[in-house]
Structure formats: C-alpha cells, structure tokens
Specification:
The protein has 14 helices and 16 strands. The chain is an alpha/beta fold.
Length: about 450
Amino acid sequence: MFDSIKKIFTANQNEEIQLVYGDKPDIPREKSAELYEKAKQYFPGGVNSPVRAFKSVYGTPLFIEKGDGCRLWDADGNEFIDFCCSWGPLILGHNHPKIREKIIEVMQNGLTFGAPTALESELAELIIKNNRFIEKIRFTSSGTEAVMSAIRLARGVTKRDKIIKFEGCYHGHTDALLVKAGSGLVTFGETSSAGIPKAYADETIVISLNDKAAVKAAFEQFKEQIACVIIEPIPANNGLLLQDKDFLEYLREICDENCTLLIFDEVISGFRVGFEGAAGYYDVKPDIVTYGKIIGGGLPVGAYGASAGIMSNISPEGGVYQAGTLSGNPVAMAAGIAQLSELVKSGFYKELNTKTEQFVDAIQRYASSKNYHFRVFQIGSIFWFAFTDQEKIQTSEAINPKSMNKFKLMHRELLNRGIYLGPSGYEVGFVSAAHSKVDLEKAKRAIFESLDIVFKNK
C-alpha cells in the first residue's frame, strides 16, 4: 500500500511537494475545476458559502450534480458515500421518495403565495404535538433568520440589550453573533467578521464553554442588563464540543435567577439526536428554541418556538416585528411534513443512533489498536473526527489547530476512496437513515486505510 510518492496541490493550486504513502490515485476534478473557474467570475471566491471553497483541504471544490440515498455524484462522475448530508438536515438521505413525491404534489398547485396555507398548520401541529418544550412556533426561511428573530424576541420580552454567547458556538451570520464565532471563521483563522459595527459587538458577551465561573461573573458585572443566554446545547459548528448536563442545568438556573431567557440554538441538533433535540436529550427546558433546514427536508426553512406567553410578543399579536415573504413556504412545509412524519415513527431514532454508535465504535477501536492519536466523538447520529488523545474536548480553545493538517490529508485520502466529508476539520459528520450496513462497512475500510496513511506521514 505504502509504495508511492505523490505530488499534492494545495487549494490555491500552488504546488507543494510532500511524502504521501497512498496507493489511490487522486480523483479526476477537471470538470469541477472548470466549473470553479467559471464560478469565480460571478461569486466572491467562486462560492456562495465560504467553506465550500475547499480552502482547508486539498484540491478544487467538487461541484455536485446528483444525490440519491447516501450517495453523491460530482461533475466528473466521481461517486461518494456522503457523511455531510447537506450539513445535517438530510437525515433520511438524498432524494427521499416520500419527500420528493410530496413536493411534486404540492408544487402542482403553485410555488409561493405570500399568504397562509393549511400546510403551515399541519407541520406546526406535527412538531408541537411531539415536543414538550414549545407551545407556539414561527417559521422563517433559514436557521440564521430563526436565531436572529429569537434574539430580537428575547430583547423585546426582557427590555434588555446585552446577550451572552459562547466561544465556539456559531449561530449564523447575523451581526450580533459573529463575535468570535466558530466553523467557517475559525477555518480561516479569524475570530470575527469585517463590516460589523463595534457597537453591535459591545452588546455581545463572549464566554468560554463549560465555564460556570465566567457565566456567574458576567451576570454580576452586567446585572439586570442581559436579555438572554444563547448556546448550541450540542456545539457542533466548531468540532463536537459535548457539554456536561450540569452545565446546561446551571445555565437554566442562573437565567431563572436573573429573569434572563435561555435560548437553545438547535439548528443542527434539533431533530437529529431525537425529535425533541438536545432539550429532550438532556431534559433541560429552554425559553426559546431555534431550528433549521431539517424541518423542511433540507429545503430553505427555519423556525423558532417558545411558550404561548413568550410568542405572544411577536407581531401581529405583540410589538416584536418579524416577517418574511417565504416564511411558511408551501413547498418547504410539504417537504417538512414528509420528513418529520418519518422521524416521529416508533424506533426511528433508536435504530439510527445505534447504527451510528456501532460505526463510530469500530473506528475508535481500530485507531486505538494502532495507538493512533485519534478520537471519534459522537452523540446521536452526529460524529466528529479529532486528532487528539483527549477523552473530552469541551471548548474551542482545546482544539489543536495543527491537528487540521492531519485532517487535510485524511480528507484527500477519503475522497480518493469514495467517502465525502465536509471540507474542514472543524466540521462534524452525519449518518443518515439511508446509510446501509454495507455502506458503513465500505466507509470504515476507507477510514482505516486513510488513518494508516495519515499516521505513516509523521
């Protein structure tokens, strides 16, 4: 296996010579490269979302042409087992027939009306009847919009301005929350975004995860000024930084003591670890919870929900304004009804989560048997590969940036073996209901081989 020396090309196409003892040729990317050059004429960096530019891994971005089940095909005809799942929402896999059929059925009556439809209530009823933590919901067009609206709602209810967020938690690209954010920004070695007024950042208090003392100090310093605490209860945008239940319980307690609202950003974890998301998994009740594209089968949609009392503050019932022409779009609602109807079935999550756990355990056993400095973190059907010996990583500061060099090599070797992960070592992976035992066995073999290559190159 380990008999060739290859040339690797970095993402910016500067040639870099490096020893790589892999036996798999690089996948063809000629058509993707051509499409990327064309895209750069129209879009900043050639993409419409930064991480897609493949700046943290080898080669040009892959342009995808088709997805079906757990597989993707790119413009060059390469086939991959997909563990990105459109960054999580495709819990049933790509092109699920029930979702597709429901979308086609609804589309024949029109695509958008900017007016109420019965589908909105049908999806809302499905969610609320199976979720102890919300009584009313408002649909938006994205997770970012849901979080932005939840923050505005918290400020409107409490009549306060300051918010607390946590280092390593990413809550979309709204101004007040792009302060030491995770995921894409960390990937590029930045801690905030240009174009955000200092006054916005001054209203955002940033604290390290798993630091009760810092939370307490913030409440003491800004007494009766904090509208809300927002957290990814399962931080999954900057590694998988699994928190202890008692930290989330502490946030609940200190928010109650200070008449502050607790927001759970469940854009990733919602409907992933269970139908009630992290709130149900940890049995910790947030005041407001936000969801993302998983409630629309992967179509552009988001939502935020809370008690009827809190939600009564939203216009037209209350004074907190939020609106959107595509909020409750019938096509997205139809897709969501089809997807969540599958998720609510008895045994769905038990089967999916068990399958993921078995997959992860096998990879960890292999790495441990080889004494590789490598750990797989997992919750529900979410997992994260980390090149570390640490049994717990609960803060973004605990991630070694140099470990991303190993992920970079692993990503390349996995692509060459037909396995697709998100193009950043800070991103998590997902298992879907469409991944069969055969698919996962093939993926495990590819991961074992790729790990051998990574650790052969000291």
